Amino acid sequence: MRQLIAGNWKMNGLRHTADAILDPLLAGLALDHGLACDLLVCPPATLLAWAAGRLQGSAVLLGGQDCSAGKEGAQTGDISAGMLRDAGAGWVILGHSERRAGHGETDGVVLAKVRAAVAEGLVAIVCVGETEEQRQSGQASAVVQSQLLGSLPADFDGVVAYEPVWAIGTGRTPTEEDVAAMHAHIRATLVSHLGQAGQTMRILYGGSVKPSNATALLALAEVGGALVGGASLDARDFLAIARAARQLPQNAAGARTPA
Ligand code: PGA
């Protein structure tokens, strides 16, 4: 299995500004003759159909940033998983901390969305992560475990992203030891919750990933890739992060543990 490098554009991008991301990204990939990782971009929903056209024939995967738990009907402004698929997406980010905090998404809401996404054949990337206060009071492991148990259906077979809330968009990252310890904890939780599927499931790290820290973060044991926000809006930075990715061992995302 390869590491997954996923770009979360958040609420950024118009067709003419998105060209400035996708054109150099595709040109860089052509120069590289492919990449050693799986590469995913998640633009806003308004750009999905357009991006699907631009990415056609390339290896770049396409995803949405959220979907409704509902299939269709009277939910003004919402977008269903089926609509994402219809627009060309194969993936969807769910339970991002900006949705959990800003839109009142509980674990139960995220769980319902994951079920809706999976029912439409989308691969869900489910985000978990503690706030700064929770880390400082020693609750980080318990918070993340409870988010995993509450957000993932027992037959989940997608991807998990660990994103400490305090590291998102701040330029701050946990120490390598802390990332490795949390990923090991997530792995153990996934194995006990999901069995076999939990053993090889990719666990992404997210929160201020940039070219200068990507190599060290992606080399850590149990890090199966990265979820990249700000740096995914710059094709050169995003490509530099993707070039730092590595092949994962067959049985687990093992690699070096920090010295
Ligand atoms: P960031 O965002 O890379 O800008 O910190 C990560 C995310 O929110 O997914």
Radius of gyration: 17 Å
CATH topology: TIM Barrel
Indicate the proportion of strand residues. Answer: 5-15%
Which molecules are bound besides the chains? 2-phosphoglycolic acid
Tally the beta strands.
8
CATH architecture: Alpha-Beta Barrel
Percentage of residues in helical conformation: 40-55%
CATH top level?
Answer: Alpha Beta
User: Distance N terminus to C terminus?
Assistant: 25 Å
Indicate the mean pLDDT.
Answer: 95
**Main sheet, how many strands, which sense, barrel?**
8 strands, parallel, barrel
- Regions with pLDDT < 50 over 5+ consecutive residues? none
**How would you classify the helix and strand content by structural class?**
alpha/beta
Principal-axes shape call: globular
The structural domain count equals 1
Listing every helix as H and every strand as E from the N terminus to the C terminus, the arrangement reads EHEHEHEHHEHHEHHEHEH
**Total count of helical runs of at least 4 residues:** 11
Query: CATH superfamily assignment?
Result: Aldolase class I
Strand order of the largest sheet: 1-2-3-4-5-6-7-8
Descriptive keywords:
8 strands; eight-stranded parallel β-barrel; alpha/beta; binds 2-phosphoglycolic acid; 259 residues; single chain; TIM Barrel; 14% strand; 11 helices; globular
Describe the 3D structure.
- By secondary structure, this protein is an alpha/beta fold.
- It has one domain (3-65, 79-243): TIM Barrel, CATH 3.20.20.
- It has 11 helices and 8 strands.
- Strands 1-2-3-4-5-6-7-8 form an 8-stranded parallel beta barrel, surrounded by 6 helices.
- β2, α2 and β3 (61-64) form a beta-alpha-beta unit.
- α1 (15-32) runs parallel beside α11 (235-243) and α7 packs parallel to α8 (176-194).
- The two termini are 25 Å apart.
- The structure holds 2-phosphoglycolic acid.
- The site of 2-phosphoglycolic acid (PGA) has 13 residues, from β8.
